[in-house]
Amino acid sequence: MKLEGVEILHIAMPLVGAFRTSFGTEAVRETLLLRAVTDEAEGWGESGASEAPLYSGEHTHGVADVLARHLIPALAAAPDLDAHSVAPALSAFKENRLAKAALETAILDADLKARGIPLSYALGAVRRSVASGVSVGIADSIPDLLDTVDGYLADGYLRIKLKIEPGWDVEPVRAVRERFGDIVLQVDANASYERSDIDDLLALDDFDLSLVEQPLPADDLLGHAMLGRRLATPICLDESIVSARAAATAIELGACRIVNIKAGRVGGYLEARRIHDVCAAHGVPVWCGGMLETGVGRAANVALAALPGFTLPGDTSASERYFAEDITEPFRLVDGHLAVPTGPGIGVSPDPDALARFTVSRQWVPVR
Ligand code: OSB
Ligand code: MG
Question: Please, where are the H alpha helices in 19-96?
C-alpha cells in the first residue's frame, strides 16, 4: 500500500452539555480527524486531543503540528506501508501518543478497508455488541447530578462513573448511592489527589464502588501501590498506563487491579490490544475508556471493547450522550449495549455534509 498523503481536518462539535472534570470544562469538542489517502483505499482516524493540554501534554493544534511536520513525512520512507509498519516508522519520535494513534488508526482503517477486514476481527473481537457505561461530569449541585444520573439510568446505561475531585467526592457519591441503590457505580479522579489526601480516598470505601480511577498523578505508580494496600475499592489506572510496558510495571507493582484502555493514550489500537493481552495474562480486567469521540473514534473503540478481556462496561456511550448531531450514523444504546460495526476497517466514514458543517479548517499533507 502506498500512502499518497493525509488530510488533517480541524473540527469543532458542540457537546450537548459541558463536560466538567477536575482538569477543566469542555463545551465544544475541538479535535482532529485524519483522512489517509492510499493507492488502495482511504482511512479515517480521530485524535483524542482536546483544545488545551489538560488531560495529557498533547493538544489539538500541537497534534496537528507534529503530524504535519514530523509524523506524516516520516511515513514517506516506508516503501510498502501497512498498519503494522506505522509504529516502527514513528518510534524515533518521543511520546506524542495521541498524534501517533490518530495517524496509525487512519492507516489501519485504509489497510483493513483495502483487505475487506473489519477492525473488530483484526483485533480479535469475540462480541457483537458491547456493554456501555456513562461518564458523568462534575455538576453544579447534588440535585443537578441526581437528575443527570437519573436520565442516564432511564436510557439504560449499565454503570455510572462519577468524576470526582477534592471537595466533590464523598457527598455526591453518597447521594447517588442513596438515591439509586445497588447500581454499578465507580469514580474517576483524573489524578487530582495527592498522597496526603489518603483519608478522603479511604472514605470512598463506604460506598461499594466497583473501582476508583486514577486518584494520584500519572507518574506516581508507587503511590498507587501504597494506596492500594489500604483501600478496599480496586484502583483502576488511566493516565498512568501509556504502553504495554507501563501496564506490566503497574500490575507487578500492585499499583492497580483494573486497567482503563484508551487507544489514543497508548499510541494506537495495536498497542491497546497488547495491553489487553498483558492484562488478560495477569487476570486483570480491562474496560474501554473514551475521549468524547465522534462516531469515527467511537466505531474503533467499540471494536476494541469487543475483545474478550473487556469484561467491564466501557465509556462507550451512545452518540446522543455527546452530540445532537454526529458526523457518522449515530451509535445507539440498545439494552445498554452498542453494536460493533461489521463493515471493513472501522466500519464507518463521516457523512460529507455533516463533516463540512463541523470542519473549521483542513490541511492536505502530501507524502513524497
Ligand atoms: O479520564 O476518562 C477520562 C474524557 C476526556 C478525557 C479523559 C476522560 C474522559 C471521560 C469521558 O471520562 C469518557 C467518554 O465518555 O468519552
Ligand atoms: Mg479517566
Answer: 60-66, 72-74, 86-90
Of all protein residues, the one whose alpha carbon is nearest to atom 9 of ligand 1 is 291
Q: Closest residue (by CA) to atom 8 of ligand 1?
A: 291
Q: Which of 13, 301, 315 most suits a substitution to test ligand 1, by most atoms within 8 Å of the C-beta?
A: 315
Q: How far lies 276's CA from each of 177, 248, 287, in Å?
A: 30, 11, 9
Which stretches of the chain are assigned E, i.e. beta strand? 3-21, 24-38, 42-46, 129-131, 134-136, 160-163, 185-188, 212-213, 235-237, 258-261, 286-288, 337-339, 359-366
CATH superfamily of 3-116+352-366: Enolase-like, N-terminal domain (3.30.390.10)
The HSE-up count of residue 252 (CA atoms within 13 Å, CB side) is 7
Residue 82, C-alpha cell as written in the block: 501497512
pLDDT score, position 207: 98
Using a 6 Å CB cutoff, which residues line ligand 1? 55, 135, 188, 190, 238, 289-292, 315, 317
Predicted pLDDT of residue 77: 75
In the chain, CATH 3.20.20.120 sits at 120-339
Give me the pLDDT at residue 368, please.
Answer: 80
Report the pLDDT value the prediction gives residue 178, as an integer from 0 to 100: 98
What are the start and end residues of each CATH 3.30.390.10 domain in the chain?
Answer: 3-116+352-366
- The pLDDT tens digits for 257-300 are 999 999 999 999 999 999 999 999 999 999 999 999 999 999 99
Question: The domain 120-339: what is its CATH number?
Answer: 3.20.20.120
Which residues in the chain show pLDDT less than 50? Answer: none
Please tell me the distance from the alpha carbon of residue 64 to that of residue 177, in angstroms, as a whole number: 42
Whether 2 is catalytic is no
Q: Is the pTM of this model over 0.90?
A: yes
The residue whose CA has the least distance to atom 6 of ligand 1 is 291
